[in-house]
Predict the 3D structure of the following.
Amino acid sequence: MKRVLLTLAAVCPLFGGEYAVLQNGFRIHADRHEIIEDKIRLHIGSGSMDLPATHVASFEIEEYAPPPPPSVPASDPPIEAAKIVSPPTPEELVATAAVNHGLRPEFVRSVAAVESAFRPTAISPKGAIGLMQLMPGTASDLGVDPHDPAQNADAGAKYLRQLLLRYKDSHDPVRLALAAYNAGPGTVDRYKNIPPYRETQQYVEKVLRKYLAELAR
């Protein structure tokens, strides 16, 4: 099967967009950007703008703001009916955690689906715990109980955001963040790329394919 190459410029932004900060101090809002030799192409709506790379000082991420929920006409509940609140599903926990940390729910759901198929009790052979498959050390660093589904989902989304920000100025930030989630940021930093591990390489592409499928739904 032909390998599909996806860079950050080829997928829907995981955050809300970005600002290109020019050397003269001006800021240009764009949906995303890509580097083409000595130029930077800003994608703005249905068009694009090419700038010399030397004119751009940096990029700033714009937070993703979820759309407001649709309004529902108020109605009086039946007096005789007791209100029963069902606990959130694992998918809902993951979506809520994504929004809380400024990430797209489709992206974090894709990671959870590949990691554990949304199973809160999943334990990997390497000891990763729960639906976001947190390693005990990572859970300890984040100060959460990985066996609690809500804490696990929230910590997983928080960790993904940290990794996306860590590699945001790299040549392929989404892939490197996913590789670091799977193999650890130390391994990614050592190779300065996706590690040459078949498991990690397949993991990254599987999550991205799942993410694109989520966006297409």
